[in-house]
Backbone:
C-alpha cells in the first residue's frame, strides 16, 4: 500500500540542519505515526511521503516555506521586564505563552538587557532548511474515526 490521503504512515527519521547537526531523531523511540493529508507533519515532508510504501528509505530537503516558515522579524519584540510578573529569574531560552492579535502563541526569551527583554514568537526552526533521512515502516488505511478526528488513534497516535 502506498501513502496517500486517508492512510496512516509510520516512519523512522533523522532530522539535521545545513551543518549536519542532528536536531531530532526517532532512534530509540517508536516510529512517528501520522494521518496523511491533513497537515499533521510539515507540508514539504508530507509531499515527499506521498506514494511511498513500507520499506522505502529516502532523503528529502524541506525549505523553510514548506517547513516551519521563514523567520518573521515582526514576531520579535522587546518588552519590559515587568511583563513577566511572578517570575523571579528570567533567562534566555525560557518559553512563555503570550496572547497576541493572532491568538495565544509561544514565545522564547532571546535576550535580556537591563529592564528590556527580547522575545521571539517564531518557531525555533523557522528559516531553517530541514534535511530528513526517512525509513517508512508501515502504511495502512485510516479508520473512519481517525479520518473524522484528523489524527491517528491507538499505538503511535492519539489515545482518547
Residues:
Amino acid at each position: 500500500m502506498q501513502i496517500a490521503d486517508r492512510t496512516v504512515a509510520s516512519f523512522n527519521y533523522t532530522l539535521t540542519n545545513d551543518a549536519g547537526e542532528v536536531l531530532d531523531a526517532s532512534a530509540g523511540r517508536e516510529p512517528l505515526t501520522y494521518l496523511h493529508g491533513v497537515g499533521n507533519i510539515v507540508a514539504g515532508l508530507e509531499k515527499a511521503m506521498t506514494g511511498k510504501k513500507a520499506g522505502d528509505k529516502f532523503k528529502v530537503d524541506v525549505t523553510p516555506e514548506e517547513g516551519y516558515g521563514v523567520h518573521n522579524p515582526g514576531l520579535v519584540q522587546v518588552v519590559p521586564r515587568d511583563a513577566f510578573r511572578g517570575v523571579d529569574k528570567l533567562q534566555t531560552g525560557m518559553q512563555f505563552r503570550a496572547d497576541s492579535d493572532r491568538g495565544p502563541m509561544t514565545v522564547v526569551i532571546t535576550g535580556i538587557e537591563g529592564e528590556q527583554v527580547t522575545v521571539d514568537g517564531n518557531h525555533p526552526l523557522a528559516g531553517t532548511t530541514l534535511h530528513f533521512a526517512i525509513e517508512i515502516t508501515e502504511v495502512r488505511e485510516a479508520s473512519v474515526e481517525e479520518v473524522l478526528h484528523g489524527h491517528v488513534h491507538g499505538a503511535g497516535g492519539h489515545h482518547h
Notes: The longest strand covers residues 130-141. The helical segments are 43-49, 144-149.
